[in-house]
Amino acid sequence: MNIPEKTKQKTLLLSITVLLVSWVVGYIFLDYQFKNSVDEQLENITESTEKLFEIKVREEDKTIKFRLARIVSADGLSKAIAEADYEKIHSIITPYFNRLKSLNEDVKILTFRSPDGVTLYRAHKPEFRGDTLNNKRKLILDTNTMQRSFSGFEVGKLEMTYRTTQAIFYKNIYVGNVELGVSPELFIKDLNTIFNIDIGIAIDKSLLDIMLNNDKISINDTYTLIKGSEKLRKFFTSPKELSDFRVDMNMPLQNHLSKTLGILVVGFDISKIVEQNRAFMYKLLFIGIFVALLLVIVLHEGFNMMLKHFTKQVYTDHLTGLSNRQALNDALYSGESNVLILSNIKEFSLLNELYGVDVGNEVLLQVAHEFEKFGVEHGFNSYRVSSDEYVLLKEDSNFEAEVYSDFLDELHNNISTLPIYIGKIEETLRVEIYSGLAFDHEHSLEEAQMALRKAKEKSLPYLAYSQSVDTKKNSERILGMKRVIRHALEHKNVIPFFQPITDKNGNIIKYEALVRIVDFENGEKSIIFPDDFLPVAIKSGLYIEVAQEMLSQALSFFSDRDEKISVNFLPNDFFNYALMDKLVTLISKFKTSGKIVIEITEQEGIEDFDRLVRVVERLRKQGVLIAIDDFGSGYANYAHILRIKPDYLKIDGSLIKNILNDNDSKILVKSIIRFAKDLETKTIAEYVENEEIFELLKEYGVDEFQGYYFGRPTDLINS
């Protein structure tokens, strides 16, 4: 039966309609997917740009401070600053500054000032000299007030610069400061190369009156563009002409007080990406139209091709071709048990700095190929998750550390023996890696990072995650304790507790001052002991303040009392000028000499024992008595004891506690007492907790006694 002509026409019209509808729907769908793909790429590039900018600022800040420190330590400079000797400063600084400029063309400013703000010397403009800082910038004022280094972005007359200051001391007296300013180009010029982006700088409009530069473009109600490419400027003046240009303005530029003075403006030209994606889309649609009979198949295959295209863009690292961080996250959250090896290249930032980004990228590429090759051989998937960090991931529900130890040995050997030939510099480089190993769940990457950091700290090639390397909880505890210490210093809650020391008749003849922190949490008073806060205070730079507060209260309280007062010092405390000055000042308030006993904790690894002896001798001339604390605790350098000739040896409490039942402790205590008597040195026994120990020690010939039998440490000042 023949189909009527009208039916054919209707069928043809329906087919054409279906094709047109399919084409329109397909076009809309594809266009939407491509736009999402572009947005995801932009977001990834933006995040990477911001992270790299932050890293660059931190790394360059360290370099600037290091170079400033070398300049400040130049022979004769601090004296020349103190004497305001322009010619001397000029002769010392000129070669440093010339070398600095030759190493880094972005160095703009190097200025030396006196404490009252007078410019002593400008290395960048030595012809100008002797003026006073008209605009009292907070950076300089804070340096003068706190006498320490500060860094941050500053807005000047011509441009925004990143400035770092360094306090200068001569004979422990603050005599001025030096300021180094660099162009922001130092932080952003490499970013253009990595991501092919346009970068500019915008400042807060409230700062415009400071600048003489008239080439400014207002970009919103808050910021004005002062530096940027022609494309960025055109975007803000004629945005309609750049429809395929995107701008991100989320990176703040802050001064040393964390106040935002401006923002980093990042522009992205997406025209090529859009053009490539649209060309790909049109090809698919063209095929779909001309292959109407295979419409479903073609659309299905086209969708698979697009999905593969999107997946590659979203889940692939564009430099190395390995899977990226997003792909790793999906794999970790799949619910499977995995073994994860995280590795990074030793001192890669230094290699990048020495040879440049292009060479660094070539190193990353060749190392990535070696990781991929190793992964294929041993059943691992390979990923690049950041600049120089690689991950090997393998499904494994039966983890055996010994097996993966062999894998890691082989991996490290392969990388360390990999010859990386760089044609650009005609040189073969070799690199090494650190690795962290973790097992089982979605937090494996975080745990491997902890293991990696601990491996670096211990100078080990690799380390597996365990509770002992979990730094998160320990970091939270340290931060909490730092806050407690700072609060205690601010509110005078660092106080001495005093424990009595008696003679053979039980009469109190002196007290030992023991540092405590009184804390009030939720309205309840608690006492924090030294073992809990002193290690944190030492590592965080708060120890000297704690020690000064402790000394001041303890010695002031005993300046008019009859008993002696004993205070504890670490050997390196004697090398701290601020602490020693405080001690000498407090000693002068005592009317009679011989009332202060300084206890030195005997320990291994004293940095400069000869210097320690000289300080002890000077203190002795002021009437201070010397005791060696914890003698017999495991390390005792008898040569050191003989040179110091202490007035007291304090026998370690671990020997006293066990003396009734431990024959070895008795032997050691007796030998210490004999040694002390030969030196004509008195002995003090700690941890005397009952009468039986007291009587036995008197029989052995101990001179003085300390412990709970005679009294616990108490707050005599506030009681």
Automatic annotation (TrEMBL):
Q: Which domain of life is it from?
A: Bacteria
Keywords associated with the record: Membrane, Transmembrane, Transmembrane helix
What GO terms are given for molecular function?
cyclic-guanylate-specific phosphodiesterase activity
Q: Which residues form the EAL domain?
A: 478-719
The residues that cross the membrane are 12-30, 280-299
Q: Does the keyword Transmembrane apply?
A: yes
Cite the Pfam families for this sequence. Answer: dCache_3, EAL, GGDEF
Question: Which Gene3D superfamilies does UniProt cross-reference here?
Answer: 3.30.70.270, EAL domain (3.20.20.450)
Q: What is this protein called in UniProt?
A: Diguanylate cyclase/phosphodiesterase (GGDEF & EAL domains)
Listed PROSITE patterns: EAL, GGDEF
**Residue ranges of domain GGDEF in the record:** 336-468
